[in-house]
Amino acid sequence: MLRGRRRGNSRSGLAPGPAVLPELPLLLVTKWSTSRFIVALAVVLAAMVVPGASVGALSDPGGTFFDDDGNEHEAAIEAIAAAGITRGCSDVFDDLYCPDDLVTRGQMAAMLRRALELPADPSNWFDDDDDSIFEGDINALAAAGIAFGCDEAKYCPDAQLLRGEMAELLVRAFGYDDPGAGDFFADDDGHTFEASIDRLKEAGITRGCNPPDDSQFCPDRPLTRAEMATFFVRALGL
Ligand SMILES: [Ca+2]
Ligand SMILES: [Ca+2]
After folding, report:
1. Where are the domains of the chain?
2. How far, in Å, is the centroid of ligand 1 from the Cα of 49?
3. Contact at 8 Å (CB) between 179 and 195?
């Protein structure tokens, strides 16, 4: 699960819902619109009166997640959910994706491990992830030769994943080895991950970061969970 890694600002700026029914988790009351609150209330009440009814059965006609509705990456987000690559970011119903949150290196490890169905590895590859919920994913990724540290013996699981790092991880994960004409972007010249960025471009996984010119890749920029979904869709052909 991607639990507990949601940034605090993902809950801000939203109108509070009805201040009733304290047995419902507070985050739901503050997060959801009134209409969704009513739907949730109905399901909760059904669960109270109908034996076997499940609150987890709550679903949104717009797909798995509520918070990606209308997002330009919504189709990609739903596609990677259907493929089992993400389970969202919700603490309660697995119905939130937090599309605007920035991807962390730990989250990326989990998504890549699920995408590649990598087996567990008993080795302790990094020291700084020992308390991370993503340690198992990171170890699996390292054993497969995909994960790389942010420093010696460190993986920095809570650090934001940068686009250059993403390129390196995807190239290692999916084996893109053709650089094409090379030097597709001007702003990565001499960058640690320039060779992988060019391979990612040649494979058609990235177009660049400044459309329509797309002459730059922005290798040191973080990326959102929504953007990451689209990269996975392209890499996996979903
Ligand atoms: Ca470790
Ligand atoms: Ca270049």
Report:
1. 12-158+224-238, 162-221
2. 46
3. yes
